[in-house]
Amino acid sequence: MRFFIGLGMTLLAAGCHMVTVDTGASTDTRRTTVQQAPTGSVSPRAFAGVVNRVEPVAEDICRLRTSGANCDFQIVVDSRRGEPPNAYQTVDKAGRPIIAFNLALIAEAQNVDELAFVMGHEAAHHISGHLGRTRETALAGAALGGLLATLAGADPNTVGTAQNVGANVGARTFSKDFELEADSLGTVIAYRAGYDPEVGARFFTRIPDPGNRFLGTHPPNKSRIQTVRNTLADLR
Prior knowledge:
Elements: E1 18-20, H1 44-65, E2 74-78, E3 87-91, E4 97-102, H2 103-108, H3 112-127, H4 130-151, H5 156-172, H6 175-192, H7 197-200, H8 221-235
Parallel strand pairs: 2-4
Antiparallel strand pairs: 1-2, 3-4
């Protein structure tokens, strides 16, 4: 899944080299040199500036909209080269939310508004609890698939296959809705951080349109752009 994957269940592949972006925080664990950020259409310093402005807004909104959630976002850069553009949200073993960008996505961005929108979108996935909700629907789908196969008298291997299929269907059931929810809240986050989400959403005009496929993971690009516009109309 490329760009705005959002619902990654694990933190990058083994052997991946990540760097933490300088957020200007006083604690050493959240700092690194800006020069470690990728170079592309947006400079490393500008990218760090986006993090500095968007992260505190995302954390404030997280605390306002959730109860007991970990809102201490960590922003990281996947420094592997040759990967397709991608950004996603996940959590570490301690439950800390992580937003990861890779080099290709940042190089693809044409301005800071696009990066701010991406970061707001990924933060919104965490604030909205999309990882947990996806896990729940996947488990429900697996249980139903396994039950139906068992009732049909299937052998253990077939039951296992049915559980996997059910989990996949369950995980995808609300995927498009989750993406649009994240687009809307991401718009709020980017806007309150001082960026223009409508300019940021122009990224959708340059990536492949997934269309409106049954059980697809992402909604049509035009739907996402319209969601941003509708949310902005309420904010302005």
